[in-house]
């Protein structure tokens, strides 16, 4: 009997190990190797246009300012910011569309007008480097605008409900009533989705066909919800035929690396390849937001777009493990950046405001690593000032470590708590200085402080921020490292470093 039980245990163990190995092999065969993450961290709703050998890309900027940062690339892998179309706070900015018409660049984007009503706006420039015009209100609701030119050269704005609005010749006003050209693809009722949510319509003409890609299934929610469906027509005005093998792209299982894949658009390369740009959440790291991804697609013998099973034909994006202040696009949340922040490679200056990050935006960077540290020397020039480092979702949900003369400060969920440091934090010559370090290790946050940047003391409080993402908190934001200045006066920041762990 003992031998029999022992044999059964061995068999069970072997079966378990084999199942685990098979699962690992299965995970490795998912389309992760065919997918390239282009920009780290929260870069949702990518819109890309190619001009010659150069690509330009914008994303949803939501409450962050400067907004609608324009990135350029020669190889589709490495992207450099070249301008910001919205230097001033313009409200919540959702999925934009960047396009070129008659050698002029346009960015169409949805937001809210001065009355708080949903509307769509457009800004334009003769160069992607700017300067960009002040936004023009198109006075039409809806989201996810797409600039479309029909077979006769007429300009239109296609919105998420499938409504096609005629545009003026200069693209700066709506000239008539819309026509409904597309109503979506019916999702099988047994699929786990967030909602139907037809959105993110994009049109690309390839040979004699117009291909329409649309997002369905809800932007977040279940990992299998968001998707890219396709339809085609010989005319922008339809009729549109849905692909027989829809969807083109979808997360099939929660075991995959990329969740909620959707909001796709196609861009051709000078070599004639077709690249699908889209976004997705990373499994286990929804706190990073929706990240910009790409895969290669081809036109099959059936005349439809199909994903390839080959790795994307791009070099691996370069990401240094150690970065300083000059390596980030710094932004504010919900307020004008230029009013309180000034950043140079050597010195960051913040005007103090409020008592905690609940009262005023920190200076924010974007992070895409699972594990990282930020560190800086913070100097107060006013006895009523305070400063610290934070990991920030919004004004009510954040965690950080700061100080003011004589006290340590803990920022947590919109509140502030005080404690005594192990070494005295004093004012000398009217200034008070402290080195602060925050570590984000798989969404577990911990902190350190030092009076000289050499001898460090660990702060006795840590925090778990795994649930700080849209599915629990809403707003489609992400965890961002930042620097906060409160009270009165100015805070000077030197030796800022970001280190991938």
UniProtKB/TrEMBL annotation:
Keywords: Glycosidase, Hydrolase, Signal. Gene3D superfamilies: 2.60.120.200, Glycosyl hydrolase domain, family 43. Residues 344-498 form the Beta-xylosidase C-terminal Concanavalin A-like domain. Residues 1-19 form the signal peptide. Belongs to the glycosyl hydrolase 43 family. The record marks 144 as: Important for catalytic activity, responsible for pKa modulation of the active site Glu and correct orientation of both the proton donor and substrate. GO terms for molecular function: hydrolase activity, hydrolyzing O-glycosyl compounds. PROSITE patterns: PROKAR_LIPOPROTEIN. InterPro entries: ConA-like_dom_sf, GH43_C2, Glyco_hydro_43, Glyco_hydro_beta-prop_sf, Glycosyl_Hydrlase_43. GO terms for biological process: carbohydrate metabolic process. This is Xylan 1,4-beta-xylosidase. The keyword rRNA processing does not apply. The keyword Magnesium does not apply. It comes from Phocaeicola coprocola. The active site is at residues 45, 199.
């Amino acid at each position: 009997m003992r031998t029999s039980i022992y044999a059964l245990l061995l068999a069970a163990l072997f079966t378990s190990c084999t199942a685990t190995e098979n699962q690992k092999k299965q995970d490795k065969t998912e389309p992760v190797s065919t997918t390239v993450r282009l920009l780290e961290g929260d870069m949702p709703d990518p819109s890309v246009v190619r001009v010659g050998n150069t690509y330009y890309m914008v994303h949803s900027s939501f409450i962050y300012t400067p907004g609608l940062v324009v990135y350029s690339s020669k190889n589709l892998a490495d992207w450099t910011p070249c301008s910001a179309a919205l230097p001033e706070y313009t409200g919540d900015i959702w999925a934009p569309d960047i396009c070129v018409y008659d050698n002029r660049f346009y960015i169409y984007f949805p937001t809210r007008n001065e009355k708080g009503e949903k509307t769509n706006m457009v800004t334009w420039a003769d160069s992607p480097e700017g300067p960009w015009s002040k936004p023009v209100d198109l006075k039409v609701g809806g989201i996810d605008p797409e600039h479309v030119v029909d077979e006769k050269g007429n300009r239109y704005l296609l919105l998420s409900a499938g409504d096609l609005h005629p545009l003026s010749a200069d693209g700066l006003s709506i000239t008539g009533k819309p026509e409904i050209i597309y109503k979506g693809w019916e999702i099988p009722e047994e699929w786990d989705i967030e909602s139907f949510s037809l959105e993110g319509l994009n049109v690309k003409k390839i040979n004699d066909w117009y291909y329409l890609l649309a997002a369905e299934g809800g932007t977040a929610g279940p990992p299998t919800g968001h998707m890219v469906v396709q339809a085609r027509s010989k005319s922008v005005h339809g009729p549109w035929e849905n692909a027989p093998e829809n969807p083109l792209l979808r997360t099939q299982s929660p075991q995959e690396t990329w969740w909620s894949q959707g909001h796709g658009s196609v861009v051709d390369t000078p070599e004639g390849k077709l690249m699908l740009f889209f976004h997705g959440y990373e499994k286990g790291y929804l706190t990073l937001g929706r990240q910009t991804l790409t895969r290669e697609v081809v036109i099959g013998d059936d005349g439809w777009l199909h994903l390839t099973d080959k790795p994307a034909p791009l070099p691996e994006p370069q990401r240094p493990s150690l970065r300083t202040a000059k390596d980030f696009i710094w932004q504010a949340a919900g307020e004008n950046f230029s009013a309180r922040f000034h950043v140079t490679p050597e010195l960051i200056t913040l005007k103090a405001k409020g008592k905690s990050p609940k009262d005023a935006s920190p200076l924010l960077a974007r992070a895409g690593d699972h594990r990282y540290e930020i560190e800086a020397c913070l100097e107060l020039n006013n006895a009523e000032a305070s400063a610290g480092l934070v990991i920030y979702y919004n004004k009510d949900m954040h965690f950080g470590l700061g100080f003011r003369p004589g006290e340590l400060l803990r920022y947590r969920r919109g509140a502030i708590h005080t404690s005594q440091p192990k070494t005295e934090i004093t004012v000398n010559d009217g200034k008070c200085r402290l080195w602060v370090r925050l570590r984000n290790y798989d969404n577990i946050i911990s902190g350190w402080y030092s009076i000289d940047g050499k001898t460090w003391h660990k702060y006795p409080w840590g925090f778990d921020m795994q649930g700080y993402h849209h599915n629990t908190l809403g707003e489609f934001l992400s965890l961002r490292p930042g620097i906060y200045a409160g009270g009165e006066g100015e805070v000077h920041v030197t030796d800022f470093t970001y280190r991938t762990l």
